[in-house]
Amino acid sequence: MSFDAASRNIAGLLALPLSLSAYVACGLVSYALLPLADTGASPVPGANVLALCAPFVLLCSLVVVAVARSLAGQRRSAREIARLTASRGLAPEPRLAATAARAGLEGRVTVVDDDEAFSFVYGVRRPRVVVSRGMLGALSQPELAAVLEHERYHVAQLDPLRAALAQALCAGFFFLPVLAALAARYMTARELAADERAAASHGAGALAGALLKSASAQARGPTSGTVPLAAPATLEARVLRLEGANEPRLSRPSLSELGLSLVGVGVFLGAFLLALCGLAGAAAVGHALAPLSVGGMLEAVLWLAPAICVPLGVYWWLARRALAGHFASR
Amino acid sequence: MAGRPKKGSGTLAPLQGAVMEVVWRAGVPVTVREVLQALNERRAEPLAYTTVMTVMNRLVANGTLVRHGERRSFTYEATATDAAGLAVREVIRLHGDAALAHFIDEASIDPALLERLRRLLGERQDSR
């Protein structure tokens, strides 16, 4: 798998929260918990210790609650959509069933009775494709094949799962607004990759036609849903790609997002050091700040590298396996 | 969905639902005044014109109704043919931030982009 735009952005999206968590976890274990176990000091903390730890504990619980709420909300929504397609879904008509079978999506496509032209993939473990009746009516045969190939890429790559995790990460690390920008870039890059597949197997013309029909429908009846991960520039990047741009530039994180994220990192680390001071004294804070020197920085990179590389490696391996497994079974 | 009659009737607030029923029954574009009269025929406490107008503008904003004509003579039409057709879109809109990957997922679409797509298609047909 090449190091494309999606990989770069998911690397950033994962690296920031992971390195922050790894640093905090290492600091807590080596400077607070281990010495505490060694000296056998009283496990009952004094009042001032509680006060010093409070901001950090509060922040951490906010992160956990936000991640849990985001995941629960998405689960609820996914169930609602599954129920909707189960109760209102129509069996695919012969033309769609045949095209779906050719695209390797046999039994995974549902038609919903709606005049508007739309299509999407849902479902975390076993994604399914939903196509509206309006979409089916609007698309020519090659366009339909292109849409299904596009959606099939999302199915094979478990993109709903990726979207869910990216969203939960953004919700959890709410004090790093740059994550939302990275997630938006990531999702746009995923769309470009799915488009690439569709254009390669059914031609750029079929894809452009499908995009035009679906986009015109949306331009007529705006869906005002709040989709935090939808980069406003996604369609523009996709059109640029069709026009022949090699790698369309994705919208960059704004200066305010970067600035606020720096402040966020500062506040989080400040709360952590305060808690460390309360648990293990001022000397531990000095140790924890050691990575700020040049030598310490190198050492910190060595320590943090596995914490970032291992999850990223697992991510790439899973993505590769999902892709290979799905497209081999054709 | 037999056991959940309430859910099936859609996610619109009660007044929005009543307005949509009138619009669907009419089958042709209607004015706020017409909807108001139809609603008040069956109500003990009549609704104010501005209330109905606010509800209908909200329905336009979320894409359930479309508005035609000019100021003072606006007419409104439903985008879906009935409650069943509406509910699909409505549910998806409500849950748009769930674990989904849309084919196209934009809050608003720049007409210039549509023009560029049209040009792309035109070029392809010309070169054939």
Summarize the largest interface: chains and residue counts. A-B, 66 and 42 residues
Q: Strand sequence of the main sheet of chain B, in spatial order?
A: 1-2
Mean pLDDT of chain A: 82
Order of helices and strands of chain B: HHHHEEHEH
SSE topology string of chain A: HHEHEEEHHHHHHHHH
Q: Per DSSP, what share of the residues of chain A sits in E-state strands of 2 or more residues?
A: under 5%
* Count of individual domains of chain B: 1
**Rg calculated over all Cα atoms of chain B:** 19 Å
Reading off the top of the CATH hierarchy, the class of chain B is best stated as Mainly Alpha
Cα distance, first to last residue of chain B? 51 Å
Domain tally of chain A: 1
Structure description:
The complex is a heterodimer of chains A (330) and B (128). A four-stranded mixed beta sheet of chain A has the order 1-2-4-3. Chain A is built from twelve helices and four strands, in the order H-H-E-H-E-E-E-H-H-H-H-H-H-H-H-H. Chain A has helices at residues 5-39, 47-88, 94-102, 133-138, 141-156, 159-172, 178-202, 204-220, 234-242, 255-280, 282-289, 294-328; strands spanning 89-90, 109-112, 119-122, 128-132. Chain A has one domain (5-328). Chain A is mainly alpha-helical and 330 residues long. In chain A, helix 6 (159-172) runs antiparallel to helix 7 (178-202). Helix content of chain A is 73%, strand content 5%. The longest helix of chain A has 42 residues, at 47-88. The relative contact order of chain A is 0.15. Chain B contains six helices and three strands; from the N terminus they run ααααββαβα. Chain B is mainly alpha-helical and 128 residues long. Chain B has a single domain (5-127), classed as Arc Repressor Mutant, subunit A (Orthogonal Bundle), CATH 1.10.10.10. The model of chain B is unreliable at 1-11 (pLDDT under 50). Chain B starts with a helix and ends with a helix. In chain B, strand 1 (65-68) and strand 2 (75-78) form a beta hairpin. A two-stranded antiparallel ribbon of chain B has the order 1-2. Chains A and B meet through helix 2, strand 3, helix 5, helix 6 and helix 8 of A and helix 5, strand 3 and helix 6 of B.
